[in-house]
Amino acid sequence: MKLDEFLRLNAPEDLAGLTAAIAMASLTVWESIPFKSGLLSEVNPSGETQKAIDVYSNDAFVEALTGTGLASEVASEEMAEPVEAKGGVSVAMDPLDGSSNVDTNNPIGSIFGFYSKKLPTAGKNLTGALYVTYGSMVTLTFSFGKGVHRFVAVRDGGSMGFELLGVNLKLPAKPEVYGFGGARKDWIPPVARFWHSLEERGLRNRYCGTFVGDYNQVLTRGGIFSYPALVNRPRGKLRVLYESAPMAYINQQAGGYASDGEGNILDIAPTELAETSPLYIGSEPLVREVEGDILSEKS
Ligand code: AHG
Ligand code: MN
Ligand code: MN
Fold first, then answer.
1. Rounded to an integer, what distance in angstroms lies between the CA atom of residue 254 and that of residue 85?
2. Helix then strand then coil, % of the chain, to nearest 5
């Protein structure tokens, strides 16, 4: 089944239009990656040096999203303020996740959250979320509240289109992989202990350095991804609005759970657009276990 047909039958009209626009823009971003990997002199609101692909993808998606007339605003980790528009959906995005991994050709991605309230707002106000994975395939993984579905980019005559790859994706019951970001020496002690226990249980360490790539394999194989609280960085690195909440929404639709180490990521009400939190996401039993370990260390 083609993407447009699936969206017509299964998505609210506004989210269908935004998703179709993201799908086409993602192909433009993907084709530009080899030419846009240089470093720029600018920094983003999180103080990170921007790569040309960060800015190029940001501008491509802003244009595609505002051009639908369906977005009321588009906020991005690459912009200090949202771009205002005339539609009804607040869109928050990480236009290029893992841009530091372009040079090594690791999987990278784009993350989008569709919120029903003005940004910043809590993840429980998400009505849908989508991530693009630029890996051995270009895939769209998304949910509008009725399961998680995946499409893959394929040649369609003289151009590229998206074909259905899977519906109602669920985390498998048996967790197989784990991946933790940051330097092991900097993890808070309960996280370090938990990480070692996963090795003893025979889970496999699979970490590529990109949130989208690292989560994407957890969704398929079961397990846990984390960018944890660090001793010298207790608020972690990943941005709630742009990265963790949209992925937590998809993960929850796939039967999983995502925590900041104290409670559900989707309950966090960020007061700043670029607010970060620790993230533990994947199979619910594992996430609940590490959340419990962190909480009991605090009590
Ligand atoms: P972004 O490129 O959007 O800033 O995201 C990079 C993030 C995330 O993709 C990944 O999990 C994390 O940075 C890796 O951080 P370190 O390089 O500090 O390990
Ligand atoms: Mn990014
Ligand atoms: Mn990112």
1. 32
2. 35, 30, 35
Ion ligand 2: residues, CB < 5 A:
94, 96-97
pLDDT in tens, 141-172: 999 999 999 999 999 889 999 999 999 999 99
Residue 171 within a domain: no
Cβ neighbours for 127, distance < 8 A, ≥ 6 positions apart? 12, 15, 89, 114, 115, 116, 144, 145
Looking at the structure, do residues 186 and 147 belong to the same domain, yes or no?
no
CB under 6 Å to ligand 1: residues? 48, 94, 97-100, 181-182, 209-211, 227, 237
Decide if 172 is inside a domain: no
Digit-coded pLDDT (tens) for 202-239: 999 999 999 999 999 999 999 999 999 999 999 999 99
Q: Which two tokens stand for residue 10?
A: 């299964």
Looking up tokens 């980019």, which residue turns up? Answer: 153
121 and 217 together in one domain: no
